[in-house]
From TrEMBL:
Stored CDD domains: C2_ArfGAP
UniProt xrefs under InterPro entries: C2_dom (IPR000008), C2_domain_sf (IPR035892), CAR1-11 (IPR044562)
Domain C2 per the UniProt entry, residue ranges: 1-103
Phylogenetic lineage: Eukaryota, Viridiplantae, Streptophyta, Embryophyta, Tracheophyta
Subcellular location: Cell membrane; Nucleus
Annotated coiled-coil segments of the chain: none
A GO molecular-function descriptor: GTPase activator activity
Similarity-based family: Belongs to the plant CAR protein family.
Organism this protein belongs to: Anisodus acutangulus
PANTHER family the record matches: PROTEIN C2-DOMAIN ABA-RELATED 11-LIKE, PROTEIN C2-DOMAIN ABA-RELATED 4
Name by which UniProt lists this protein: C2 domain-containing protein
Length: 164
């Protein structure tokens, strides 16, 4: 792990079209991992389109690591079933935060960068990194891998970026 360069707030907003792992539904929860830091949402019972709206704080360091997530179906009497996984490179977010400082961007709602789906992320669609309310933010829909369907929406904020 590199030098700590700031704080990251990750809001797990919702899931859509998640796969069925029980008889006709699933009881999903999400595990987020950034380096050796881990966070977990609450379980949403009998739901394929859950709304979590839970926020977690992580320390971020450079070089920026991948934010990884796994979705599971909670089971009472056996091991939890996998419902897919996804990852997102945080490098574009960190680079945008640095660029904003260098350029002195202060205009509310300024788009700092567009990120497109490619091999170092699981984006379901293009995503913009913006300057909003004094923070560098990115709203993303991540497509779950290793399953037939499923997307997870995250809202990510980069705060307290050091000026290295």
């Amino acid at each position: 792990m590199g030098d700590k360069c700031g704080q990251l707030k990750v809001r797990v907003v919702q899931g859509r079209r998640l796969v069925i792992r029980d008889f006709n539904s699933s009881d999903p929860y999400v595990i987020l991992k950034l380096g050796n830091q881990t966070a977990r949402t609450k379980v949403k019972n009998s739901c394929l389109n859950p709304v979590w709206n839970e926020e977690f704080d992580f320390s971020i360091s450079e070089p920026a690591e991948l934010l990884k997530l796994e979705v599971f179906d909670k089971d009472r009497f056996k091991a939890d079933d996998k419902m897919g996984n996804a990852h997102l490179s945080l490098q574009p977010l960190v680079a945008s935060g640095r660029l904003r400082k260098i350029l002195g961007v202060t205009s509310e709602g300024t788009t700092l960068r567009k990120v497109i789906p490619e091999s170092d992320n699981c984006l379901a669609a293009d995503s913009s990194i913006n300057w909003v309310n004094g923070e560098v933010v990115q709203d993303v829909w991540l497509r779950l891998c290793d399953v037939d369907s499923g997307d997870i929406e995250l809202k990510i904020k980069l705060i307290n970026l050091s000026s290295k």
